[in-house]
Structures are given as structure tokens and as C-alpha cells.
Amino acid sequence: MSAAGTKTFAAVDLGASSGRVMTGRVGPDTLRLTEAHRFPNRPVNLPEGLRWDILGLYGGVLDGLRAAGPVDSLGIDSWAVDYGLLAADGSLLGNPVHYRDRRTEGVAEQVWATVPPDDLYRATGIQYAPFNTLYQLVAAQGTPQLASARSLLLIPDLIAYWLTGEQGTELTNASTTQLIDARTGDWNRPLADRLGIDLALFAPLRRPGDPAGTLLPAVQERTGLPGPVPVTAVGSHDTASAVAAVPAGRRERFAYLCTGTWSLAGLELDAPVTTGASRAANFTNELGIDGTVRFLRNIMGLWLLQECMRTWELTDVTPLLADAARMPALRYVVDAAAPEFLAPGDMPGRIAAACRATDGPVPRTPGEITRCVLDSLALAHRRAIREAQHLADREVDVVHLVGGGARNALLCQLTADACGVPVVAGPAEAAALGNVLVQARAHGLPGDLAATRELIARTQPLSRYEPSGDPTAWEAAARRTEDARPLPA
Question: How far is CA 192 from CA 120, 162, 173, 273, 382, in A?
């Protein structure tokens, strides 16, 4: 299917606002990524709540595979925690619930009455987030759909099932459910039993690189792909794939920032950190490629700006960034990790209200609000990376910023200024590259994780941002945005 010494792989990469099918051509000194097809991901507000348009996404995947042409394998990654329920005959029981749906409000307190937060964190290493799969499943208890379900598939595993007819649960994504023991890499059955969660709903665990079936004849006909086409399990949580594509050197002491709708800021470790201090700081221990642990914090990310643009009915971010660059630095700042920014709707109004609540200046124009978002994200990146170093007792010399935010030069420079260390930005399509490279390793192209990162560094465009400005200004701004909301004891 490819020239001698190279192979071609399709990466299905589903994000919270769009999906894409990318093709990657990989060889010993070759790594070329091409976009075959991009399609929107538009959640739907129904009377019963916010739902994913999973059928539209699947149609986009099929169209993308047709556009990709012949490939040696394909892999699928997506956002975490959400799932589809299947009946005994394998049919889908309704559209998957969106993690921003309000059904989990108040559920955490119900769970903590049975399993206190400290015990829950020690058992799983996963941060508190109201949308974790564990809370979603407790919220769903007693519903007709869950009562009728015979299997549960996380989003990338659901797409893989429709493509192949085979069910599995990929481990990096499973670790975000808050039902996996981060130390053993297996289900925490005592925890699930205490909460009345039936782990028999989950298909057998797969690990990145494992086979995940071959395309069904009907799928081959629809996509025009000559067969057989294997599907390969990758780091199916898009952050796991993105971290695998961080172009760090073998001896580099690095932190990573996976930027997009969310910012995921943290370190790559060999073992989880499940101390009380780590729980209080709301750090998570998700499983990564080759037995690594992604020790990180979730930050709202460019969702803040995306929602502002939706309110303003704007689609081009370039003029906003130009206006923001002319605004005074650190005049308007908010806590970008604050829970009031989670739900969709009137983000400019909520940002203004947050500034007003701290008696600070209130941004009013789109340029002022955009600068507020970017300064606030840089501060949140700074805080998360500094706390990760302290909690894991590990220093870093550089921050690798990957994902869509790598295209935002102002955000990259502000992050370098805030963190006080250089930022290396790129690749922007990190999740797709990590997806492709895990497939390449599984299909005969040699190299460990460090070697694949070196290949990315040699072949992909990267930009370096050195810290500048006044560090004391960032210190003062950081004190204004300290989060005063302690986690429940």
C-alpha cells in the first residue's frame, strides 16, 4: 500500500468540537500527516438533556475512511469518559449523554456518602470531575436504558465496534472512568461493587497496539477500502495519544501541555501519585503508552474562547488575537479552572461576572475578554506545572505544548512567560500523530516511545518560545487567581 520501507495508517481523531480522519505515512525517517476529511461535532440539546450526535460522527468517520484511501491499519481516539449502552442484540440504546449534561449534579455527594473522597482517590488515582464515568453510571442507576443494557462501550470503542463487530475496552481511556486501579492497570472490583456498578457491562480490556478486529465487509464496501483492513487499538483517549507525540528528547526533563478545548497540564511518570496532597490539588493519574502514567490536571482550556466566539457569532480567531496582543498584560484575570465555566452558554458574561466578583477590572470588548482568557490560561498552566513538580518531586526545564493551542503564538509566549521556562510548541496534530505511531509500532516499524518522539522532533515543525517580561507581575497575578474552593474532606 506504500512505498518500500513505509506504511500508511489512518487516524480517526474525534474531538469535542470536530472530528477528522488523518493519514500518516511512516518510515524510519519519514512521518507525513495529511488530513483526509474533517467534519463538525455538534452536540444536540434534547428535552431530556445534552447528547452527542454519535450517528453523525460515525457517518463522518466512514466518509473520512473513503477519502483516506488504502491503508495498512486504522486506529481511533476521542475524548474521554462518555459511553454508549448496547442492548443484547448489539443495538445502541439512545444517543450517548454528553459529559457537560447536568445529570451528574449532586451525584458526587451521593458517592462520597458510600466511598469517601480520600478512599476513592487512593483506589483509582483519578481526580474529581463531576462528569467522570463513575458519576455518570451512578446517575444512570434506575433508568430504563441502563436496566436494558448488556454492554457499555466508551466512544472510540463504540466506533471500533461498528467498524469491526468486535467489542473491547482500551486501557488508556478506561483509566479515565475512575473504575481502574492505576497501580495494577485493572478494574477495581471492590470499588465498583460498593457503588453498585456492574463491571460485566465492560468488554475485555485492550492495550495500545493490540489488534481490535478487521473492517466488516459492509464497511469495506461503504468506504471502498481494499481488505482486509485491521483496526489497531491505540491510546484511544486523545490525551494519551497526544502525550505519546510530545517531541521530548530522551534525557529531557519536561512537562507537557495538551491544548485544545481542554488544557491538560502535567508530567509523564512511571507510577501514580495518590497522596492526600495530590488529591487536594485535584491531580489525576491516567494511564498512558508503555505503562506510563499521565499525572496531570484538567483546565478548561480554549473552550473559554470557543464559547465566547459562539456568543459573538465569530468564526475567525485571528482578529481577536491581534486585538488581544495590544491589550495590557494581566489587567483582567480569572481562575480558568473554576467550575462555573464548565457549562455552555454566555461565556463572556460569566467571565465578566468572575472579574466583578474579585473586585477587579471588568473586560467588556471581545479583545479585552480574549486577552483575559489567554492570560488566565497561562496562569492556570503555570500553577498546574509548578504544583505537579512539587507533588511528584520532579523538576522540569522545558514545557512541550502540543495540540491546537500550538498554533496560537500569543498563548505559547504567555505560557513561557508565566512558567519561566522555554515552551516548545508543536505538533498541533499531536493526537493524530500519536495514534499513527502506535499503529506503526504494532505493524512492524521498530522503535520505542523515545524513538518515536525523536522521529517527531526530526520531521515536524516546532517553535520555541523563551520566557520574557517581568516575573513579579505573574507572581502578583497568580495570587489574584488562587482557587479558594477546597475539595470536600
Answer: 11, 27, 17, 21, 35
Integer Cα distance of 340 and 15 in angstroms: 22
238 is catalytic: yes
Cα–Cα distance between 137 and 133 in angstroms, integer? Answer: 6
Which distant-in-sequence residues (6+ apart) come within 8 Å of 311 by Cβ? Answer: 346, 347, 348
Catalytic residue among 238, 335, 375, 417: 238
Query: CB-hemisphere CA count at 13 Å for 257?
Result: 36
Per residue of the chain (489 residues), what is the pLDDT tens digit? 455 589 999 999 999 889 999 999 999 899 999 999 999 999 999 999 999 999 999 999 999 999 999 999 999 999 999 999 999 999 999 999 999 999 999 999 999 999 999 999 999 999 999 999 999 999 999 999 999 999 999 999 999 999 999 999 999 999 999 999 999 999 999 999 999 999 999 999 999 999 999 999 999 999 999 989 999 999 999 999 999 999 999 999 999 999 988 899 999 999 999 999 999 999 999 999 999 999 999 998 999 999 999 999 999 999 999 999 999 999 999 999 888 998 889 999 999 999 999 888 999 999 999 999 999 999 999 999 999 999 999 999 999 999 999 999 999 999 999 999 999 999 999 999 999 999 999 998 878 899 999 999 999 999 999 999 899 999 999 988 874 344 333
- How far apart are alpha carbons 422 and 249 in whole angstroms? 14
* Residue 295, C-beta contacts closer than 8 angstroms, at least 6 positions apart: 266, 267, 268, 269, 272, 273, 283, 284, 285, 388, 391, 392
In whole angstroms, give the CA distance from residue 394 to residue 387: 10
- 157 vs 352: CA distance, rounded Å: 40
